Amino acid sequence: MGRVLACRRDELPNGKMKYLQIDGNDILLANVDGAYYAVSDICNHAGANLHEGKINGKHITCPWHKAVWDVTNGELVQFPVRLRPLKVYKVIVDGDAVYVEV
Ligand code: FES
């Protein structure tokens, strides 16, 4: 599909995350220390929406069973069982605009 405008930089301050639905994909976009990252919003454990959880630095805690994910690379950080990584989307910052490539 290509790049889609996700937000303007000032709409997503450091330490915040935002939910996007682009072309049927549920996507979580986060600002970690001024850098933007996008991963699947759907937890690979049982399908919770991760943007309803908590963000602490680059770590997102799932609201349901507290799996901890690294939003910068989609990898699982902490959980009793192994889960496959979250899908990662490319983010492009162009001036004041933040795009996600889907
Ligand atoms: S649904 Fe995310 S940890 Fe269970």
List keywords for this structure.
102 residues, mainly beta, Rieske Iron-sulfur Protein, four-stranded antiparallel β-sheet
Quick structural summary:
With 102 residues, the protein is mainly beta.
3D structure, described in words:
- The protein has strands spanning 3-8, 17-22, 25-32, 35-40, 54-56, 59-61, 68-70, 76-78, 88-94, 97-101.
- It contains no helices and ten strands.
- The chain has a single domain, classed as Rieske [2Fe-2S] iron-sulphur domain (Rieske Iron-sulfur Protein, 3-layer Sandwich), CATH 2.102.10.
- It is 0% helix and 49% strand.
- The chain is mainly β and 102 residues long.
- The strands form two sheets. It has a six-stranded antiparallel β-sheet with strand order 1-10-9-4-3-2, with no helix packed on it.
- Bound molecules: FE2/S2 (inorganic) cluster.
What is the overall number of helices? 0
Helix content: under 10%
Here the CATH topology equals: Rieske Iron-sulfur Protein
What kind of sheet is the major sheet? Answer: 6 strands, antiparallel
Supply the CATH architecture. Answer: 3-layer Sandwich
Question: Based on DSSP secondary structure assignment, what is the total number of beta strands?
Answer: 10
Mean pLDDT: 97
Query: What general outline do the C-alpha atoms trace?
Result: globular
Task: Specify Rg, calculated over alpha carbons.
Answer: 13 Å
- Pick out the low-confidence regions: none
Structural class: mainly beta
Measured distance between first and last alpha carbons: 6 Å
Task: Return the string of H and E elements.
Answer: EEEEEEEEEE
Strand content: over 45%
Bound molecules: FE2/S2 (inorganic) cluster
CATH superfamily: Rieske [2Fe-2S] iron-sulphur domain
Strand line-up across the major sheet: 1-10-9-4-3-2
CATH class membership: Mainly Beta
Number of domains: 1
